[in-house]
Design brief:
By secondary structure, this protein is of the alpha+beta class. 28% of the residues lie in helices and 31% in strands. The chain has one helix and twelve strands; from the N terminus they run H-E-E-E-E-E-E-E-E-E-E-E-E. The strands form two sheets. Strands 1-2-5-4-3-12 form a six-stranded antiparallel beta barrel. Strands 6-7-8-11-10-9 form a six-stranded antiparallel barrel.
Length: 253
């Protein structure tokens, strides 16, 4: 009789124990699933970060490849440099490049891309240099209208725009005309693209015309540039062939 009396409670306790055990097993399984889910999320974040890093490297490599191709074809000696800092304020517009005196960079050297003119080196340190952009009012270079060959001074403004000043009063300059360097200064050779005329201005009392230029280079998106170190390619150090090594004329014995 006692066994029969205890049988019911024991069965209930066994059922409760089984239920608790099953619940615990479910909890452990859910815990493992949660941990695996967190691990997968972490791996996905790592892969996304790696993908973004590789994408950035590819974009940068493509830009420097374009600079390298231009560098090989350009009739001047240039040095590639990477932009490592910017300062675009109300006082001046500049950027910092990762080349300095140790690389042969000097103040007043011109800075370009494969598209056109960027600015001029104004200060040089051992490993870095400061480049003032063409939109800075402290930068002035000579330029000309590509079609009419009329010359003027290209200079930035405090507002960050670029002006072409002192154009001849009878110049047929028009909106859309291309502006290139004239080669009359020591920093840029002739014919480098600066931009296009966006607006022409000539007041009745002015002796000259002026034009606002839309630059060909988007300064805000630059990653790399070329510093012009010389207008002329280096002269080969190889000795010219001697007379003995020249091929004999046809028909000679």
């Amino acid at each position: 009789p006692l066994a029969m009396i205890l049988e019911g409670p024991l069965q209930v306790m066994a059922s409760i124990q089984d239920s608790v055990g099953e619940t615990w097993n479910h909890y452990l399984a859910l815990q493992r699933v949660w941990e695996e889910n967190q691990d997968l999320k972490h791996k996905i974040q790592q892969l996304q970060g790696e993908q973004n890093r590789l994408r950035e490297q590819a974009i940068l490599a493509m830009e420097f490849q374009m600079l390298s191709l231009y560098q090989e074809a350009a009739p001047m000696v240039t040095m590639p440099a990477r932009i490592i800092g910017r300062n675009v304020s109300n006082w001046y517009r500049a950027m910092v490049i990762d080349k300095g005196t140790r690389d042969g960079i000097r103040a007043e050297m011109g800075v370009i891309t494969n598209a056109g003119v960027v600015g001029r080196v104004v200060r040089v340190n051992h490993a870095t240099s400061i480049v003032l952009l063409l939109s800075d009012p402290n930068v002035a270079i000579t330029g000309m209208i590509q079609t009419s060959r009329d010359e003027g001074i290209i200079q930035g403004t405090p507002q960050g725009t670029i002006q072409m000043k002192y154009l001849p009063p009878l110049s047929p300059v028009q909106v859309g005309d291309a502006v290139v360097t004239s080669g009359l200064t020591d920093d840029f050779p002739r014919g480098l693209h600066i931009g296009k005329i966006q607006q022409v201005t000539k007041a009745a009392t002015d002796l000259f015309q002026s034009g606002e230029i839309t630059p060909i280079v988007d300064f805000s998106k630059l990653e790399g540039v070329l510093v012009i170190t010389s207008f002329h390619p280096p002269i080969s150090t190889e000795s010219p062939p001697s007379v003995d090594t020249l091929p004999a004329p046809s028909g000679s014995p």
